[in-house]
Design a protein that fits this description.
Belongs to the transthyretin family. 5-hydroxyisourate hydrolase subfamily. Pfam families: Transthyretin. Keywords: Hydrolase, Purine metabolism. Its EC number is 3.5.2.17. Residues 4-107 form the Transthyretin/hydroxyisourate hydrolase domain. The chain is built from 1 helix and 9 strands, in the order ββββββαβββ. The chain is mainly β and 108 residues long. It has one domain (4-104): Immunoglobulin-like (Sandwich). The strands form 2 sheets. Strands 1, 2, 5, 8 and 9 form a 5-stranded mixed beta sheet that branches. Strands 4-3-6-7 form a 4-stranded antiparallel beta sheet, with no helix packed on it. A hairpin with a 5-residue loop joins strand 3 and strand 4. The radius of gyration is 13 Å and the shape is globular.
Length: 108
C-alpha cells in the first residue's frame, strides 16, 4: 500500500469527486507520483510504500473537475502541503471540496 492516499468529496453534491487528477510532489518540488480519483473519489495507490521525512505536497486539479460539470469555481487547483515524519505510518489526506471553498485534515 502507498504511504500516501487521498479521498475527495464534493460537498456541494454530497458525493465522491470522480476524475480529479492529483500529483504528489516531493521536498524539492519534483513529481513523485500522480493519479486520478476513482468512482469513490479515492486514490489508494499514490506513490511508494515509504518516503524520507520531509515536506510534501498534493496538487489537486480542480478546474477540470468543475469545468467538466459546467460549475463556476474559484480555485483552479488546490495544493495541500504536509510533513512526513520518519516512522509515522500511513498518511491519508482527504479533501472536502466545493466551488468556492475547501478543507482538509489528516485522516486514518
Amino acid at each position: 500500500m502507498s504511504l500516501i492516499t487521498t479521498h475527495v468529496l464534493d460537498t456541494t453534491t454530497g458525493t465522491p469527486a470522480r476524475g480529479i487528477t492529483v500529483q504528489l510532489l516531493g521536498p524539492e518540488g519534483a513529481q513523485i507520483a500522480s493519479g486520478t480519483t476513482d468512482a469513490d473519489g479515492r486514490i489508494a495507490e499514490l506513490g511508494p510504500e515509504t518516503l524520507p521525512a520531509g515536506a510534501y505536497r498534493l496538487v489537486f486539479g480542480t478546474a477540470e473537475y468543475f469545468s467538466s460539470r459546467a460549475v463556476e469555481h474559484f480555485f483552479p487547483e488546490v495544493t495541500l502541503a504536509f510533513t512526513v515524519e520518519a516512522s509515522a505510518g500511513h498518511y491519508h489526506v482527504p479533501l472536502l471540496l466545493s466551488p468556492f471553498a475547501y478543507s482538509t485534515y489528516r485522516g486514518s
